[in-house]
What we know:
The complex is a heterotrimer.
Chain A: H1 8-11, H2 49-59, E1 75-77, H3 96-104, E2 109-111, E3 114-115, E4 123-125, E5 128-135, E6 138-143, H4 162-175, H5 179-182, E7 193-200, E8 203-208, H6 215-218, E9 248-254, E10 258-263, E11 277-281, H7 286-294, E12 300-301, H8 305-314, E13 319-322, E14 331-334, H9 345-353, H10 357-365, H11 367-373, E15 379-381, H12 412-421, E16 428-433, H13 444-457, E17 461-466, H14 470-479, E18 488-491, H15 499-507, H16 517-520, H17 526-537, H18 541-558, E19 562-563, E20 566-568, E21 571-574, E22 578-579, E23 584-585, H19 592-595, E24 601-602
Chain B: H1 2-34, H2 38-45, H3 51-61, H4 67-79, H5 93-128, H6 133-147, H7 150-165, H8 180-214, H9 217-224, H10 229-258, H11 261-267, H12 272-282, H13 285-313
Helix pairs in contact in B: 1-13, 5-6, 5-8, 5-10, 6-8, 7-8, 8-10, 10-13, 11-12, 12-13
Chain C: H1 4-8, H2 21-35, H3 37-54, H4 56-59, H5 93-129, H6 131-146, H7 149-162, H8 168-196, H9 199-206, H10 211-247, H11 258-266, H12 275-301
Helix pairs in contact in C: 2-3, 3-5, 3-12, 5-6, 5-8, 5-10, 5-12, 6-8, 7-8, 8-10, 10-11, 10-12, 11-12
Amino acid sequence: xxxxxxxxxxxRITRRHALAGVSAGGVGLAALGLVGCGDxxxxxxxxxxxxxxxxxxxxxxxxxxxxxxxxxxxxxxxxTTADTTNLxxxxxxxxxxxxxxxxxxxxxxxxxxxxxxxxTGEVEANLAEKWEQPEPTxxxxxxxPGAVWEDRAPTNKRPIDADDVVFSWKKFAxxxxxxxxxxxxxxxxxxxxxxxxxxxxxxxxxxxxxPYAPLLxxxxxxxxLQVMPRESDGGYDPKNETRSGSAxxxxxxxxxxxFEIKKNPNWWGAKNVLLDGFDIPIIPEYASGxxxxxxxxxxxxxxxxxxxxxxKKDFPEMNLDQGAFGRTDWMTYFGLQPDSPFRDxxxxxxxxMMIDRDLWIETFYNTANYKKEGYPFTVRYHTHISxxxxxxxVDPQSxxxxxxxANFQYNVAEAxxxxxxxxxxxxIETEMRxxxxxxxxxxxxxxxEVFKGMLEDSGMFKLKVxxxxxxxxxxxxxxxxxxxxxxxxxxxxxxxxxxxQWLNSYFHSSGARQKVAFQGKDLIDxxxxxxxxxxxxxxxxxxxxxxxxxxxxxxxxxxxxxxxPGQANTFSATWPWVGNLGVFRAWDAESGRExxxxxxxxxxxxxxx
Amino acid sequence: MGRYVTQRLLLAAMxxxxxxxxxxxxxxxxxxxxxxxAVDVISAExxxxxxxxxxxxxxxxxxxxxxxxxxxxxxxxILRGDLGESLFNGRPITTEMHDxxxxxxxxxxxxxxxxxxxxxxxxxxxxxxxxRWPDYLLRTSAILLNSLPGFWIAILVIxxxxxxxxxxxPLNFKYIxxxxxxxxxxxxxxxxxxxxxxxxxxxxxxxxQMLEVMRQDYIRTAQAKGLxxxxxxxxxxxxxxxxxxxxxxxxxxxxLIAGTAIFESIFSLPGMGRYLVGSVSSLDYPVxxxxxxxxxxxxxxxxxxxxxxxxxxxPRIRY
Amino acid sequence: MVTSAASALDxxxxxRRERALPFRLVFGLGRFARRKPLGFFGLxxxxxxxxxxxxxxxxxxxSPEKLDLRHxxxxxxxTGTHPLGTDKxxxxxxxxxxxxxxxxxxxxxxxxxxxxxxxxxxxxxxxxLGGWVDKIVQRLVDAWQAMPGLIILITLMGIARxxxxxxxxxxxxxxxxxxxIPGASRVYRSQVxxxxxxxxxxxxxSLGATAxxxxxxxxxPNVFPLVMVSATTALGxxxxxxxxxxxxxxxxxxxPSWGQMLSIDGRDYMYRxxxxxxxxGLCIGTAVFGFNIFGxxxxxxxxxxxxxxxxx
Lengths: 609, 319, 312
């Protein structure tokens, strides 16, 4: 689960660096609803909040589309924080291989880039040029003619054909890390796709066992099917080399040192690609990376929110861009053994009420300082889906949430009442587990410590902290343990391009990552299951959205897990010579390779490095 | 003399064999029993372990099977120069070592040598000024420097070097064969920093040795003969005082090379240390076994060379 | 030569009625302070460290775990509530440093105890018995010493982490201690070798003294000063080793050890609040410094010739 250590571009769409709910042009920043416009109790400066807001408005990057003036050429100086174990996206134990594969191996569809506004997850043509659905359970895709593999042995500019797709699917179904999300297998009877075949050189047919609404979206996700050439089985070593069929090529890879990406001249959209490529050295240490960024050696950097204000002050010429909301929603979840207090929903709801969500968000999104400096942002609470799912998320602070809204409010008195109704009048002594090694990033342990602190501050919990080993203890017994552990656990979740995979994987009783063993053993939440099954089969978008909203209102009352409190907008900084920054906005980082990074360009006239 | 050398060689060889057995035992027996093996790590990443698949993987990775035969096979391969392959990307370990070991060795050697450049004169100066204030100052500063964690100093240097001077270490790594000038620029700062801590210890050692030597009769004779202090020190005192210094260098260097992991991570250098630390987390046991073994062998060889150098440097030592 | 170690510790001329122990200690300390002011300073630092660790609960203004989310990343403010500032979740740095001393000292003393005891056992017994026992043990010691320390430590710590009930601090103590045995054992062994041939040992043997008795009465007392010196100097190295392990992520998580404060709490905030990393680093440096100069002075006092050169 190497979720955090990705390069800048992929981190753009994590909960820190996601896309803004900013409307273009005229409506401007006021529409964002600045939180808490009150008095400035700073004391140390003479500027009012309004003056600061004006200042910030002028320094926030306006997302100007400069494609018309764009000059092609230049190597973008990027960076990444980790090396990869190998380069084979369909057979690797970690997701880093998928991140690198997404540069070179094409996907059947892609997510349409948002133009100055966030993307919506809408799917458009990629390797598949057009498609139709003759029946609800069949999807016929027509590959675009003229798509070729890399001009290098053994692929030698051969056209990409349907057999490549079928070959890649078979490999994914056998070895792919996330195959259970999509493929029906003997040990995965609810997998949607039952067959993939090539009916001719350019046509592929997907057959599903029930009408599966998210299929087209899934085909654009880099962690599912990336199309690899048949020659990868024997013609070259896919663990250490690649053959491109997409916009970019991996021209040079030195382990532990750097990746070099170059434009693929044989890609069908090559004539519109503006950059020559990307230099991506591996910089594991945050302080080193920041030093490189400040010295203008790398052009974009994932600053922690704590560093944004100071960096902008040190380098006023930097472009500051407000991000949108992320779609990841990490969780605090419960052990559900027979003697566990958390089997009672009242106890879970009480625990949820002990979390001061505003304070938590303030701590990890730096909102107090942003407010003082006049930076615009909005705060949103997560429900059991992330608050980044526009159009699907129900705001727990609004009336739309119904009676479950109370469970998201910080109310220790009410929590104690619930606990005593459940039979607990003295502090509950139990254990709390989270990993302390770096797999989830360096901020994660602090998230967990704050949860612990808040639960204990209520006076009703006494928690013993245990830090299990990631691979041999945490993953098998806790993450995949389906609740068969003692106490409370805090952990990360996987990012999905479509909310269906999230709901199925984490909340359905047969889901691959479900944390709610009580569904699998003696207490199946049939209502939740039924709603999840219904939404995946509902082909009408509005009806489907309603089912998902109803599900959130339902889970707000049962509180199967406590979602992370929420998020606020984050800010990212880039040097001004990165042209078209933020104008084209990707749905997820890895799909941005064809849709977004092809439109970035190097404005030499602004270069001061 | 010949007997001594052969004896030493045999002993070193025996030690290397013993090391190989210990390493093998540790990684193929103790770790899998108490902890888990690479297959456990891999299957943990999948949604749930697939027992039959795990068994097949174990076969493929050579994790099952008779221990004795596995050991013989592994040892035999090493003798033939085949260090095995990484479990996760199949790259031959020998190639990795070929690329990475020089970087680590260079870091260690250059670091220590650059440290020597200022620790020897400083140690001599401290000895000459014994118990006066320059001596105290030098000794205290040396001990202080030796006490601070090297990686802490490195991070401070990067952060404040950048804040105050807008400096950042050179970014694109180049091997010495590719671009010698760029290579030197890249290695300069990390080597300097990595040599800082041990060289501080060397100051004290040089000082102590000089003091020992200066007390000797033959030094007094030289001084009585009327030679200048400078000649006395440079020609007579230094050579003899440096013998233990050579010993300590010989012993420190391999340990230093083995400990470059943190610096390589901070300065993004493609050395052995980082490779090894990364393999430990994923339990890429062929890599761990081979590299630990190679490091140990280097240490044993270094010890051997130090022992043998005694016979050259100090005619009194004969066994 | 053999008795010089004993004589260095003897604080009164032969024949005079010996003063009580406390007086001897105080006089000894006074003499030590005069002769070796630097070493005495080191002793003071070390005592300060031990004092802080023992009385951390009383000295610390806050609990090291206490969160204060409304005051994160505060800086130096010597007169305020948080004199040395706070970390990302508002925990008080001063308190955490004080409690961190406990871990550093626990690991330091624990590991040195293990390595000293082990080294004495191995070195003295092997040196005294000689013959093929000695040869075999020495080969094992060679091999043991050849293993690259940091890597083995990481592997061992990785194993320890697997089991939730294993206390990481004790695992560190054992691992570091275990790895320290071969180096020191060599020094003790060479001391034993040089004593073995002494006349009084021969005499004891001819009188029928058993091997354990000789080891206990003749060898150990002469090895003891060496142990004192080695141990004190080794303490510094152990504290640094703990810092390195924590830096790489293998240290005790959830507990405020200095190495951990430096790496996990401090590293990401070097621009925003460099104090988070600077203070723990200075603490580590001061502790190691104290042990080192004290150890140096101790060695000077206990006769330079007993130093041992690290090889034969």
